[in-house]
Amino acid sequence: MTPSPRCRVLCVALNPAIDQTITVPGFQSGTVNRAASSRQDAGGKGVNVASCLADYGVPTAVAALLGRENPALFQTLFEAKQIADYSLYLDGATRTNIKLVDPEQGDTTDVNLPGPAFDAASVESCIARLLTAITKQADALEWLVLSGSLPPGWPVDVYAIFIRLARELGLRVLLDTSGAPFAAALAAGPDLVKPNRDELAAHLGRPLPDLAATLAGARELLATHAGIARVVVSMGSEGAVFVSRDKAVLAQPLKVAVTSSVGAGDAMVAGLVAAALASLPLGNTARLATAFAAGKLQRPGPHLPAAAEVQALAQQVGLVPLNNPPE
Fold it and tell me: Which residues form the Carbohydrate kinase PfkB domain (predicted)?
């Protein structure tokens, strides 16, 4: 455990991974492909968010579940970026996610391997230890970030458990997950949620084929869950919708040279937290979060350019007001 002074954000990473990114120009399934390059990065959604926040200068901590057999990549990242490490080191190995990147077609194919299995007793022990870690750091923290899938054998309401504790401790919470864990956590009242369009459609049980439908879906979340202050729905190349209770904007994506799309959504989550820490209004939040994603797209691994470059990118983001009610 590597402490650091007054971390403002704690990112919980229950299902981290080593991201092995293999660049395969002209990738074709069912045949022999030749790779141009390969790299490994400490990853998983919560780790990616923490890495991008640290790049922007936000004092950040991580509480991850890491295997004792292969922690080196994570420990190196945490030390290099001065990310406080409150992780649980467990028997076994952290899983590997394989990313097949085809720069010619602009596609990324993900092959996510399963993580270690947990029995009921070990799950209960891990949850208790994580709750203790959050509580011990609460006096310094402002935001708790809950992002990513759950390991096999974990209860779907675990994020709800963390959110209820955060409420008791006076912390704000950003939620970025999907499926049953997303549905269970909503009732606990996170402050900010960031599904992508497919995840929101799956939760609502209907397709969201266009911008109007996506905006309506985001507003439905706000209407049915009183604790949520903002909903952000990422839509890939179509940009992202940022919705509060009185306003909504579409942030148009920046045209940048894409080195790797892996972790771009996590960079946007980091940008949302950075904007919240700065108390930015909705429009400036949309610009900064979009700039985080654009900056990450230009780099392999969960990394951002210098803060000044991110801020310059934010000034270039176009915003479109969306069917806002009169003030």
Answer: 15-304
